[in-house]
Write a structure and sequence with these properties.
This protein has 128 residues and is an all-alpha fold. It is built from 4 helices and no strands. Helix 1 packs antiparallel against helix 2, helix 2 packs antiparallel against helix 3 and helix 3 packs antiparallel against helix 4. It is elongated and about 55 Å long.
Length: 128
Amino acid sequence: MDKKIISTGAIFGMLAIILGAFGAHALKKVLSIESLSTFETGVKYQMYHALFLLFIGMTNELSQKSKKWIYNLVVFGVVFFSGSIYLLATKNCTTIDFKSIGFVTPIGGLLLILAWSVLFFNLIKKKS
């Protein structure tokens, strides 16, 4: 499980760098400043959670069951949160109206909060 968590963190990190560069260079010409800022928010949160997964995969302070919960919450959280932000920020570049998926963003955010909560509660319940 640890290898899977670390690998996913590495992939999320790599994709965040690629998407950040894409936003800074290619999308800079076609998005408004507000949309570009929104896109960058998705990239930042993806990178934060890539690093979070690397930490989770490398720590021995959590059970495998807790790591699995955190992993699943982060993966779905990043896909829902950052993924929906990417689509919403770039909606003017396509003919597809992504407004209907706007409800997914806060669900993704909640999943990310729950992942951090699982870490917190597991660490405070652990005996010193």
